[in-house]
């Protein structure tokens, strides 16, 4: 079972085993520690509603397994000073955000902080690019001998078959049916988890963003292409073969330009950052702008053609969101991408107007920007590793954790289970 994105049906809560109840309680306690650290055991009991003895047992287990550590004593004006606990900052994940031309490799800790980062070129040859990513990761790992590495997380612009973890659909990357998971696991010697970049961004928003309590949301990434991650009833939607969310390849104009997927007139040909670059080139024949960053820099200089190109892109973004709104009825739509940081104040009114026009019953989704798209993808890749590991063989042999190997199920660090569903054990 995937932990951290699952909905607990309270109608069947009484059938849960004591082991499941303990796992839920662990997730709740660990999430409170993450959100409130440093925090005392007494406060954990008060916030969670669990018995103090249960909280103490869980915290001691988490400390023994290396997920949590004591971080000092609280300063109180009187009375006994409680011991505070926080996440073990020495536990880290190696992550990579792979894009069509550039990959970012980083080390992320349990608090979502980027401790180290490097960039390298991406080619159409997956074997060569993967070998470069492995070499970069191994150098980072060697440079941080004091850290304990949990595994590797990868975010990429395409869809991954969840049963095989092979790349199933990544037209902008040019890779297909490549077993990147096996290549990375062989090269790094660590477990590897992979997902679409939009899904990774959406995971990061649920953990570190401002959509706590939102159960229906769509995050749209605007970059070289257009991708989407879908949160439906509190769960990430994957669909058959992991293909859910490919709104970028919904056809808008059958007579339009040919897309990398083979079809014509797909949404991303009009709403992506590359589309805005094309719009500019059409207005300025022989344009010297070769990259999206060139366009954004020109936009910052108030070039009227750059403004017109981006506003045209915004119209198409809004048109596509009308399809998403009508089909999924999300409470929140988040937009991530390079254009958000540079031009959000320009494009937001246009997109918002399109959303209002799309409303079927007068209810318009909230429109929110995410200003840290690259960071969100890297954080989301780290969360993938934390959520999907069903066990951690070999993890606790590391000398920095101070215990022998344990096969205890790794906690999710983010449970959307209501606190009312927990039961002291």
Number of helices: 12
- Determine the N-to-C terminus distance: 21 Å
CATH superfamily of the largest domain: ATPase, nucleotide binding domain
| Cα Rg | 23 Å
* H/E element order: HEHHEEEEEHEEEHEHEEEHHHHEHEH
Strand fraction equals 15-25%
CATH topology of the largest domain, what is it called?
Nucleotidyltransferase, domain 5
Compute the number of strand runs: 15
CATH architecture of the largest domain: 2-Layer Sandwich
In short:
The chain is α/β, with parallel strands linked by helices.
Write up what this structure looks like.
With 425 residues, the chain is an alpha/beta fold. 39% of the residues lie in helices and 19% in strands. The protein is built from twelve helices and 15 strands. The chain has helices at 18-36, 41-48, 52-65, 126-142, 180-188, 197-208, 268-271, 273-283, 292-300, 304-328, 338-358, 373-388; strands at 39-40, 68-73, 83-87, 91-98, 102-109, 114-121, 148-156, 159-160, 167-169, 192-196, 217-222, 226-232, 235-236, 332-337, 366-370. The chain has a five-stranded mixed sheet, with helices on both faces. Strands 13-12-11-14-15 form a five-stranded mixed sheet, sandwiched between helices. Helix 8 (273-283) packs antiparallel against helix 10 (304-328) and helix 9 (292-300) crosses helix 10 (304-328). The chain starts with 17 loop residues before the first helix and ends in a 37-residue tail after the last helix.
